[in-house]
Amino acid sequence: MNKRIDTRKRSFPTYSLQPTLDGRRKIDPKDHEQIRRDYQDLKSQRKVADLWGVSRRLISFILDPHKLEEFQRKRYEKGVWMDYYDKEKRREAMAKYRKKKRDLGFKEINTAQ
């Protein structure tokens, strides 16, 4: 199966919800500097992650933003979003995702005309 990979430069979406209201975001960008200071004190990404209640990988991405950019680039090149479930599971997953966004306050946009 041939997968067409789009080579255009992508920008990643940003949302206007407060970070505490958005189910994806665990740490406010304003806290990144404090995380860097905590890392200087503790010298351990795992300890900082435990302190903030997030994954070590997130701390790694905050400490070195180039790692995040590289991860996103590689993930995009692999096209992992194309490896969906079967059609029924995909439909159920999208319904669950849309319900979550509605609960968070996003308005549903109907693109079908």
Unreliable runs: 10-17
- H/E element string? HHHHH
Please report the total strand number as a whole number: 0
The amount of helix comes to 40-55%
- Average residue-wise pLDDT: 77
Largest beta sheet, briefly?
Answer: none
Name the shape in a single word. Answer: extended
- Helix-strand makeup class: mainly alpha
Radius of gyration: 18 Å
Q: What distance separates the N and C termini? A: 31 Å
- Oligomeric grouping of the chains: single chain
Tally of helical runs: 5
Share in β-strands: under 5%
Summarize the SSE layout with pairings.
Elements: H1 32-42, H2 45-52, H3 56-63, H4 65-78, H5 87-104
Helix pairs in contact: 1-2, 2-3, 3-4
Main features:
113 residues, mainly alpha, 5 helices, 52% helix, 0% strand, extended
Give a short overview.
With 113 residues, the chain is mostly helical. The chain is built from five helices and no strands.
What does this structure look like?
Among the domains are: 27-63; 75-107. The chain contains five helices and no strands. The chain has helices at residues 32-42, 45-52, 56-63, 65-78, 87-104. The longest helix is centred in the C-terminal third of the chain and has 18 residues, at 87-104. The model is unreliable at 10-17 (pLDDT under 50).
